[in-house]
Amino acid sequence: MDFKYSPEDEAFRAELRQWLEANKKFAPPPSSILAEESDDQWDARVAWHKKLNQGGWVAVNWPARYGGRGASVMQRLIFREELSRLSLSEPGIGMGISLLGPTLMHWGTAEQNQRYLPAILKGDEVWCQGYSEPGSGSDLASVQTRALEDGDYFIVNGQKVWTSMAQHADWIFALVRSDPEAPKHKGISYLLINMHSPGITVRPLVQMTGGKGFNEVFFEDVRVPRENIVGEKNNGWQVAITTLMFERGGGAGQGGALQEVMELISLAKRLARGGKTAWDDSAVRQKLAEFASEAVALKYTGYRQLTRQLKGMPPGPEGSMMKLCSTELGLKIALFAMELLGPYSQFEYGSRFAMDKGKWSFRMLAARGPTIYAGTNQIQHNIIGERVLALPKS
Ligand SMILES: Cc1cc2nc3c(=O)[nH]c(=O)nc-3n(C[C@H](O)[C@H](O)[C@H](O)COP(=O)(O)OP(=O)(O)OC[C@H]3O[C@@H](n4cnc5c(N)ncnc54)[C@H](O)[C@@H]3O)c2cc1C
Questions:
Q1: How many A from CA of 383 to the centre of ligand 1?
Q2: Residue 136 CA, closest ligand 1 atom number
Q3: Which end of the chain is more exposed for a tag (fewer CB within 10 A), N or C?
């Protein structure tokens, strides 16, 4: 890995910094897909998306011909670093920019790209991801939602679950079973379904954070035009895998863990303990140093992942290692914050006794989610065991 930035990269950073300095006042506070979201908060995120789009910063990774910046892998890293430096949230209203857009560029027809990509960029249409079902999570290829052909339409019946942001979404990209007789990976299609179609019901699910970030989505005789299929009929599994690669590869080079450790250090310095602060306790400092070391190790593992991409190599095992270790670290940091806060950890947002507006108790409750989505950590263990260590399959 070459740690030096090229003059083009430095120019990219300088332009971005200048833009962010001038516009950061429009950014909403960083939020989580698990967070409780009022309409005002959602509107603020949409407004930030539109502001970024005006500056040409909403889809830096998209090719210029689709309205992106055609940023290199390194520039994408710089983009994340600069946002993280200012504690700003990445553009994120639904899964259009990060997942559907790149998938369509790979598999979509020219008409589909023309129809859907501009509206995603502008923030005019919000997308959600309809993969998981009550009986299909880790074993995704077992999806049962049916899509049977009827003339120029598919008729969709079934249920999706854990659908993030479905309550705001205009569209869903869904995995559906279009051939119930075929072997399970061969009878799946990838459909674009308008969420405002008759026959769709969205029911919010309340998480332990109190948030209603995700939902159940029910389909009852929903008519979907034939042209809304991405790729070939019954070849949706290949398309689905492409989306998953964007989902799992999206975290390369993230420096978020280090930011969390810094916030925890700041907390320890403010927490009173027997006339001193928690930071004065060497056991506390040792623990924080341990987290910081892990966070730095993650950062460089992310750079290794980037190096592979820069050399045009396919994603390596670092993706699973990053997913596993970064989400475990997030959980450990949240747990240790609870220990540091002691009884104060029980105060939540809105209480005058809550430190940092209750963000630590929220993080504790929210930190489990990332260990589950985009392939649970047990599944990541399997991948590392089987594909990296070549252990026998159980
Ligand atoms: C915050 C959040 C947001 C999400 N957003 C979306 C979304 O927008 N769209 C969407 O489609 N889905 C979404 N999901 C769902 C997510 O993809 C699934 O929860 C995940 O794939 C696991 O599936 P499951 O919940 O059905 O658990 P299961 O697959 O039933 O697994 C249950 C337990 O068994 C373990 N397990 C299963 N199989 C194996 C195995 N082979 N070896 C070892 N252990 C195994 C799992 O690790 C887990 O601990 C979201 C989830 C979360 C937490």
A1: 15
A2: 26
A3: C
- Report the residue among 103, 126, 162, 171 best suited for mutation to probe ligand 1: largest number of ligand atoms under 8 A from its CB: 162
Determine the atom of ligand 1 nearest the C-alpha atom of 166: 8
Q: Which residue has the tokens 């919000």?
A: 126
Question: Do residues 177 and 147 make contact, with C-beta atoms less than 8 angstroms apart?
Answer: yes
Please, what is the angle between helix 39-54 and helix 110-122, to 10°?
110
> Would you tell me how many other CB atoms lie within 10 Å of the CB of residue 259?
15
Distance from C-alpha of 266 to C-alpha of 245, rounded to nearest angstrom: 36
Note down pLDDT in tens along the chain; length 394 residues.
Answer: 667 789 999 999 999 999 999 999 888 765 554 455 677 788 888 999 999 999 999 999 899 999 999 888 888 889 988 988 887 877 678 999 999 999 999 999 999 999 999 999 999 999 999 999 999 999 999 999 999 999 999 999 999 999 999 999 999 999 999 999 999 999 999 999 999 999 999 999 988 888 778 899 999 999 999 999 999 999 999 999 889 888 776 554 455 788 889 999 999 999 998 899 999 999 999 999 999 999 999 888 888 877 777 777 766 667 788 889 999 999 999 999 999 999 999 888 778 888 888 889 888 998 998 899 888 999 999 988 988 888 988 6
CA 133 to centroid of ligand 1, rounded, Å: 10
Token look-up 């989400």 returns 327
- Nearest residue CA, atom 13 of ligand 1? 162
Which among 18, 89, 84 has a CA at the least distance from the CA of 48?
89
The residue type at 96: G
Among 126, 129, 138, which residue has the most ligand 1 atoms within 8 Å of its CB, making it the best to mutate?
138
Is the beta carbon of 164 within 6 A of some atom in ligand 1? yes
In angstroms, the Cα distances linking 137 to 29, 259, 379 are 31, 31, 11
Nearest CA to ligand 1 atom 7: 163
Among 364, 306, 289, residue whose Cα is nearest residue 332: 364
Q: Quote the tokens at residue 385.
A: 């065991």
What is residue 225's three-state secondary structure? strand
For the CA of 160, the closest atom of ligand 1 is: 11
Question: pTM of this prediction?
Answer: 0.90
Residues with a catalytic annotation lie at 247
